[in-house]
Amino acid sequence: MSVTIDALTEADTAGTTAPPAGPRRFRVFRYKRGDERPHYETFEVPVGHRTTVFEALRWIQVHRDRTLALRHSCLHASCGTCGVRVNGKEALACVTMVHDVGREITVEPIANVPVLTDLVVDMREVFERFPDDHPIVRGSEFLDDADTPDGIASYERYEDCIECGLCVSACPVVVTAERYVGPAALAWGERVLEEPRGAEVANLLSWANAPDGVWRCHAIFECTAACPSGVNPAARIMSLRGTLLGRRLRKQPRGSDPT
Amino acid sequence: MSDAIDERRSRGPVQRKGLGPRPVAWLDPRGRTLGHLAFVGNRITGLGLVFYLYLHLAVLSLLLRGGEAWNDFLELATTTVFLLLDVLLLFGLLYHGLNGLRVTLVGTGYVPNRQKALWWVGAVIGTLALALSAFRILGES
Questions:
Q1: Would you call B36 and A222 a contact, using CB atoms and an 8 Å cutoff?
Q2: Which DSSP helix (H) or strand (E) runs through A20?
Q3: CA of A143, closest CA in chain B: separation in Å?
């Protein structure tokens, strides 16, 4: 049986009432605005057999350091907000079991994205890689009468992509090519081309057919390995390349609707 | 996008995956998968082949110094250590060539979901070709 972590005492195992499996050492990335440089802090966390990394982080927050900043929402791998790197590997903290990642666990924010504080990153870095005024396959199932924050007309979604940014973090090309638009945006582009539903897609191909578009990808497939939602961004980028190459070989004018 | 990149540095520190400065951070294999191994291997063998190209030109320039210089080099070139370097060169050629074919097939969208299978196909072909070639090359020493 699971209980909310806030109801637990310090002696309870993080995130569960199951028998404790022993402590785990968490090495957590720390950074606050104004710090000269980031550093790591170590915490011993009592964990159960089904404790997740997120629950362990919350235990640290509740019982050791209230200033630890982390972001979360759904806690079932559909919102993408709790993306971090666990022992160097991209993961959603809410569905990553402590037992699967070892006795010593280093938790860091995702890479290639500016860190705002501790494990919280500035996701604008991911979304600004999408072209302005881009078409989407469908809108979010947000209630029509619900309010949206200032500056947001409506919620959008990129189909299976949960916008966690793990692919941008995992991509070795983004490390050295900052202007590369990256796997999330290119996978979105291929998805829209796959099913335009009447959307204007003429500019999409010319956007993708750029040195920092599909041709910057080195077919490393780390994005696909990191994606927790089965989007398979690398294969979508390769398909996008195939579309562009096919059109080039058939001498079709660039930027025209491929459908 | 470029404005965003220029502005990003004021937002906070950007963590990088991989040890060392940015130009070599891609080398770090920790937490990576087969695709990254193939990519790193391709870059290292590519750099090695470029180095070999210039070395090869330097060796050929011995001909300018006459037949005796060339014969001296040939004596060195038939030693076991040198022949082992030939096998290493062949490894680089096979890896880079076969992986290049794999990247071409995957990267042009023909088989976008077969990158791992193609790597193993290349590994088997390359290993067999290297073993046979090494047997022939070292058998002559």
A1: yes
A2: strand A20-30
A3: 31
Q: How many domains does chain B have?
A: 1
Q: Which of B1, B12, B17 sits opposite A175 (nearest CB)?
A: B17
Q: Is B32 exposed, middle or buried (0-12, 13-18, 19+ CB in 10 A)?
A: buried
- Inside any domain, residue B114: yes
- Measure Cα distances from A165 to A171, A223, A226, B114 in Å: 10, 10, 10, 24
pLDDT digits (tens, 9 = 90+) for A49-97: 889 999 999 999 999 999 999 999 999 998 899 999 999 899 999 999 9
The mean predicted confidence, pLDDT, of chain B is 86
Is B80 in the A-facing interface, judged by CB distances under 8 Å?
no
Cβ separation of A37 and B22 shorter than 8 Å? Answer: no
Nearest Cβ partner of B39 from A85, A172, A232? A172
Which residue ranges form the domains of chain A, and what is each CATH number?
5-121 (3.10.20.30), 124-249 (1.10.1060.10)
Domain assignment present for residue B25? The answer is no
Give the range of the structural domain holding residue B114, as residue numbers without chain letter: 35-139
Q: Does a structural domain hold residue B55? A: yes
Whether B117 is in a domain gets the answer: yes
